Amino acid sequence: MNKKLLDLLILSPPDFLYRKSDEPMPMYGEERNIPYGALTVASYLVHHGLHAMVASMREFYQEKGSYIFFDRGTEKSEAIFIDKTNEILSNLLLRLCPAAIGLTINFAIHHRAAEIILDLISNLAPEMPLLVGGNHATHTAGHWLSRNNPVDFVILGEGEQTCLTLLESGLNPEGIPGVGLRQADGSIEIRPRPRLLSEEQLSIPANLSLMALPHWAPLSTQQHWTSLSRGCNWQCNFCTTPSMWGHQRYRRPHAVAAEIEQVTKIGVHDIFFAEDMLNPASRHYEGLAAALRRFPDCRFSTMTRMDLMDRVDLKRVLGAHIEHVYLGLESFSKDVVAAMGKKIRLRKDRDVHSALERLRSGGLKVTLFLLVGHPDSSFQEEMYSVRVCHDLASQGLITNILPFFFIPIPGTAAAEMQRLGKFRLLEPRMNHWTTWEPVVELLDPSGEVSYSAKEMRQVMDGYHDIWRTCGLGVYEDKGPCKPGLEK
After folding, report:
1. In 3D, which of 295, 216, 206, 212 has the Cα closest to residue 255?
2. pLDDT at residue 21, rounded to an integer
3. Are residues 183 and 264 in the same domain?
4. Which DSSP string do the residues of 277-304 spell out, in sequence order?
5. In the chain, which residues have pLDDT < 70?
6. Burial of 194 per CB tally in 10 Å (0-12, 13-18, 19+)
């Protein structure tokens, strides 16, 4: 290996999703998203005097299109993926010469790709220190530390300060919290996490110049994100945010403005906020809104709660150039929503109808997230949600709907319901946990199937019919994910 140029190269893994050759096209295609979490870690390290970069690996596989490798369940499909990934890693290691490699593993669908990448690095550079972090890695830390080719460290939860301290120590973990590691005797130690990052620490702007991309995938082709805050004050049981990021903390307006300014300089003006829950009624909002108003040519989108939007003057939202809100309603069944732990204040259908009418008449685009197959739901309740969504769409009150099948994400309270006998897992391979196929069936107290995968597909077909019959903006609207085609 040549002289080390980087203290840390952070890799963002590509997809290696499951799809049989005779299946229809997948419902959701991942956008070419900037790996914003990895970029914030790299930017934090560089701010403190280290050298770091981020490589979004999915961009290196081909020159045209946004490619998704599909695991066909055959040795051949995996061999093709391994061969191409090995070529990409060889070139990255040769050109960037890192002293250590970090791999972000945020989603269960990246589980197998991450295993392959780690094994290949172990073969290409056996002495290379390996760190993994991110949402999925945090909640499956034991797996990465107990493999035949184990990683050296799992960075748990917020990774910025832990990575910095570990690298500055020369990768000596003694006394460093927020680290998972394997001891000399083979035992695994998962240490308590450090204190959550402060407002000042969160406000180091993400630096786009730290992105390593091939010439055919410039920054201007990416979906860009920034964040106004980190964490969430709600406790929805299907979500890992509370266990990963903790309570909501706001960033300083200057950091938000600095990130947006970088994005506009490369000619991009559509930006999605990496928010778990924007609260326009918060005392922090006005300062952030003032920063957003500096960019009149930008269009911002964000996730929030319907009951939070119901309490604010919409002029405060639209005045900050926020034009599209994504509302995690999940279900129109009050019982299901209550079981999810959402604690939403809008209790009746007419309350939801009035709230949506207010948002749309005020000039906001509205997309609803729906969750299909939550362990406390049923076929009847979810078909009711389909009917309500059809009525709302036919009245022009929503721009789009984004339904997802429930996935028992490690680290969530809902995933633990499997041990209580509420559902059975149909697919144990995590990279097969896509959003276009059910991975669970619900069980009644006697252990019989109460809500089958076939019925869940019927519910999803009902949502597809709404797209077709009501002409929703499925392909036009940008957001965190949208239906697309394999390329």
Report:
1. 206
2. 56
3. no
4. -B-TTSTTHHHHHHHHTT-TT-EEEEEE
5. 1-2, 18-31, 65-68, 346-347, 349, 473-487
6. middle
| Nearest residue to 299 (alpha-carbon basis) of 258, 260, 241 | 260
pLDDT score at 475: 37
At 67 the pLDDT is 61
**CA pair distance 116, 16, nearest whole angstrom:** 10
- Report the CATH number at residue 24: 3.40.50.10090
Task: Give the integer Cα–Cα distance in Å for 251 and 230.
Answer: 8
Which domain, by its residues, includes 453? 223-470
Q: Are residues 423 and 337 in the same domain?
A: yes
CA 292 vs. chain centroid, Å, equals 23
Residue 62 lies in a domain: yes
Distance separating alpha carbons of residues 464 and 162, to the nearest angstrom? 44
Residue with tokens 């055919």: 216
Q: How far apart are CA 281 and CA 260, in angstroms?
A: 22
Could you give the 3-state DSSP secondary structure of residue 160? helix
Q: At what angle do helices 453-470 and 379-394 cross, to 10 degrees?
A: 0
